[in-house]
Amino acid sequence: MTCLRLALAALLLHAGVALAQTPEFPRFEGEIDLGAYMLNTRPARGSGQRGTNAFLFGEIGGALHLDPRLSFHATLHIEPLGRAEPQGGTIGLRREGAYLEALNAEFRPVEGLTLVLGKYVVPFGRGHGDFPGVVALFRAHETYLFNEALGVMARATLPLDAEHGEHVITAAAFTRDRSAFSTLLVGNRRRCCSSNYDRYARNTAADGGPGNTGRLDNYALALDGERIALLPGFTYHAALLSRGQGQDGTARE
After folding, report:
1. What are the pLDDT digits (tens) for 149-192?
2. Which segment of the chain is annotated as a signal peptide (predicted)?
């Protein structure tokens, strides 16, 4: 209930900017989807939790298209890295951090097929991008977004007539990113594990958890569809995800 009250009391400022150049190559495309939030927790029971907390949450993304077949993509994610109590006052950007959520290359050898190599968000679930409201936004990112994936991925558009819609199947094999790409660009420099933080200076095996195996033994398979003539406005997403046993003993899920 406390989380619900915090979200309903939030003052939301959202900016979405998309920049796109002409179809000529090479070209750069960028997008900013960044919100400024202010949570007022005056009704909180604990005195340390009362007050106002202001922070940023969202992404800044960019893509460099060298030609119609080859492009490079990067996404910078910005969010609080841990819990901060206002102690009856007002705090701003406390424990704020930024890190690379995606950094990969895309290659399209033929029409309808895209190969991805690098760091990406696992193609499982779309709630973190589609759910409305403040509560759903934060909770979906916490529990419904599988990022920090380093590996390979392929997307193929099924060769169907236009009236049957557009259907894309995606397959991915990955591990949890422990490379230099997982290093925090801004924020907490502590190593795992310390209290009041959800993310540390860099991902390590000590973080544990399913998928943190150091091998490409985590898999995802997804099927997405839209633009179906008989079902205007209808879209669907069906996916399977399997993550290997972590080095801390966490079972495969």
Report:
1. 999 999 999 999 888 999 999 999 999 999 999 988 887 666 66
2. 1-20
Q: Is residue 157 part of a domain?
A: yes
The answer to whether residue 156 is domain-embedded is: yes
Residue 252 inside a domain? The answer is no
Number of domains in the chain: 1
| Residue 247 resides in a domain | no
Q: Rounded CA gap, 223 and 240, in Å?
A: 9
Beta partners for 96? Answer: 80
Residues contacting 53, CB < 8 A, separation 6+: 38, 39, 41, 84, 86, 90, 91, 92, 94
**Helix/strand/coil for 164:** helix
Using DSSP's 3-state secondary structure scheme, residue 107 falls into strand
Contacts of 153 (CB under 8 A, 6+ apart): 115, 116, 117, 120, 123, 170, 171, 172, 173, 174
User: Is the confidence at residue 23, as pLDDT, over 80?
Assistant: no
What is the domain extent for residue 103?
A: 2-242
Average pLDDT on 125-152 reads 79
Model pTM score: 0.81
The enclosing H or E element of 3 equals helix 2-8
Q: Residue 3, class by beta-carbon neighbours within 10 Å (0-12 exposed, 13-18 middle, 19+ buried)?
A: exposed
- Other Cβ atoms closer than 10 A to 214: 12
3-state secondary structure of 18: strand
